[in-house]
Write a structure and sequence with these properties.
Layout: E1 6-9, E2 15-17, H1 33-51, H2 60-70, H3 102-111, E3 117-119, H4 122-153, H5 156-159, H6 161-167, H7 170-197, H8 203-216, E4 233-235, H9 243-256, H10 258-265, H11 268-274, H12 284-312, H13 317-338, H14 343-364
Helix pairs in contact: 4-7, 9-10, 12-13, 12-14, 13-14
């Protein structure tokens, strides 16, 4: 195509039309469907102007508005007027690229939420809290002593703050000290309550962190002992619905085939991030979806198996009751073990499950023939 049909390329790589030609030019280096749709709309606008006898060519602003209306990619931002692209490569840094020591340990803990483990320092918090508490007790005793003295000598100072501060400011000074100490005490008390509510990591996650520190020797031995303080460790990751069950399934699948497990449940980002370290990084989203599907299949089986037994097998009344009891007990145990449901939720789910089986049993029992009524 002749050069005269194209205008100069802009800094962003877009191509502008020469007004004198009145034709739409499209850069199709990547054969982008978005660009083709834009060109088709643009050509239609040009054709309409030609039929009406107008020599006007639609402006670039109109093209940008068409893009925004159709939600097309690589459009122009309404606020800044810049070109944006939703596709770009993520910058991922492997764990083993960090220097040995605390940088690599921090990278390891940041690689997966289950590895975000640190100490609570519960004893230290309580030690400081008890220190504040005793200081407040002393201030409380001093205030009570002053109140008792003024009650016997000049009770009017207890009835008037202004009179009391005009004569003696000792009570005021103690109250100011109490206020400052209470502020520190209350802040530490509420902070300790929040910290105490953080659950400790599972034995599996603690063991994984210990193995990493022990095998890689990233920290000095004396500075890596904190990972063994299980009762004082805090798990910063969000609580998962099937946390421990995920661990059991993951360990079982890795023992069966580590390669297949990594292929199915590891993302490209995790492959790069794990590097050469022997770290099993799996996608929580993929694995939770797999576990949820497994739990759904198991729940369906717990409902269909007893129904099939009651429908296909000829059992006596006591045997049918025993079948319902056995599967109801299995459902209740599974619901309590594999989920984090509360007691009343487990009770309601078990009652509903048992009711379904009882209703099915009642509908499947043969009804006695009806006797004709005598006149």
């Amino acid at each position: 195509m002749p050069d005269s049909e194209f205008a100069n390329h802009s800094a962003t790589g877009e191509v502008e039309l020469a007004p004198q030609q009145g034709q739409a030019a499209v850069a199709t280096n990547n054969h982008n469907p978005t660009t083709l749709v834009e060109a088709s709309i643009y050509d239609s606008l040009v054709s309409i102007d030609r039929e009406s006898g107008s020599q006007h060519v639609p402006s670039r602003r109109l093209r940008d508005r068409v893009k925004a209306a159709l939600h097309l990619g690589n459009g122009r931002s309404e606020k800044t007027g810049s070109i944006f692209d939703e596709t770009f490569d993520q910058k991922i840094r492997p764990i083993d690229s960090y220097p040995e020591g605390y940088p690599r340990v921090a990278a390891m803990e940041d690689s997966d939420p289950n590895f975000m483990i640190c100490r609570k320092f519960g004893w230290l918090h309580l030690r400081v809290l008890l220190h504040y508490q005793d200081q407040l007790v002393e201030l409380e005793e001093d205030l009570e002593r002053i109140d008792a003295f003024d009650a016997g000598s000049d009770f009017r100072k207890l009835k008037s703050r202004r009179r009391d501060e005009a004569i003696n400011s000792e009570r005021k000074d103690i109250l100011i000290r109490i206020d400052k100490k209470l502020a520190a005490y209350d802040e530490l008390l509420l902070r300790l309550q929040t910290i105490h509510a953080i659950k400790r990591p599972t034995k599996r996650n603690q063991t994984s962190m210990y193995n990493f520190l022990h095998n890689t020797r990233s920290l000095a031995e004396s500075e890596a002992e904190w990972v063994r303080r299980g009762e004082d460790l805090a798990a910063l990751s969000a609580d998962q619905e099937y946390g421990w069950f995920n661990g059991v399934v993951e360990d079982t699948m890795i023992k069966i085939s580590r390669t297949a497990t990594m292929l199915l449940f590891r993302t490209k980002e995790q492959c790069v991030k794990s590097g050469d370290e022997l770290v099993n990084l799996l996608s929580p989203k993929r694995f939770n979806a797999f576990v949820t599907g497994f739990m759904t299949v198991m729940a369906t089986a717990l409902l269909l198996i007893p129904v099939s037994i009651l429908y296909e097998v000829h059992l006596s009344g006591i045997q049918q009751v025993l079948v319902i009891f056995a599967f109801t007990l299995t459902f209740a145990m599974s619901f309590s073990i594999f989920t984090k449901a509360r007691r009343h939720e487990a009770f309601l789910a078990t009652a509903a499950y048992c009711a379904v089986l009882v209703v099915f049993l009642g509908n499947s029992l043969p009804r006695p023939p009806s006797t004709p009524s005598t006149p």
